[in-house]
Amino acid sequence: MAGEDADIIDLYERHALGFDQLRGRTLFEKPWLDRFRALMPARGHVLDLGCGSAEPIAGHLIRDGFRLTGVDSSKTLIGLARERFPGVAWYEADMRQFYIPTKFDGIIAWHSFFHLNPDDQREMFRRFAVMTAPGGALMFTSGHFEGVAMGEFGGEPLYHASLSGRDYAELLGKNRFELVGHQAQDPQCGGATVWLARRRNA
């Protein structure tokens, strides 16, 4: 990374234990996770990009019988995930570079994808398409408005960026995804802006 987003990986590693402690376990995301699950076969294979320490989202999917592959750039967070779910494939990797020759039934990037700069976000849609099986699901959260928004974590600035809603919709279409659901600042989901799509079969 370069610019304001350059320190994201190091920041999450520096504050990994604090992040794990603060990350809520109430699973307010469940309504969207249920919609995501409904697009996949039972016991399907899910790729969680930015899985953190596996709780609550990855753990919820694992306990529901899904096969899961988790990716996170933080060595500490991936270590916690391995301790909690030792039989799962966990990768310490940058989502922008991660690849294994597998077609996933679903890909989720919840509150992780929006830490990438706009150019990297655009490029990720090609990677999503390569790694998603025909008919597979894609769910991610974005910022609420186009542009850069600086947050704060652990007393340090935390970079977020978003494309426009039109850009996301166009990128999905160009990469053979059909938009299934979208909600900006969903009040029932912690104010998250959520995108849910399905890979076209042909």
TrEMBL record:
Signal peptide: none annotated. It comes from the Bacteria. Keywords: Methyltransferase, Transferase. Pfam families: Methyltransf_25. Transmembrane segments: none annotated. GO terms for biological process: methylation. Residues 46-136 form the Methyltransferase domain. GO terms for molecular function: methyltransferase activity. PANTHER family: TRANS-ACONITATE 2-METHYLTRANSFERASE-RELATED. This is Methyltransferase domain-containing protein. The lineage of its organism: Bacteria, Pseudomonadati, Pseudomonadota, Alphaproteobacteria, Hyphomicrobiales.
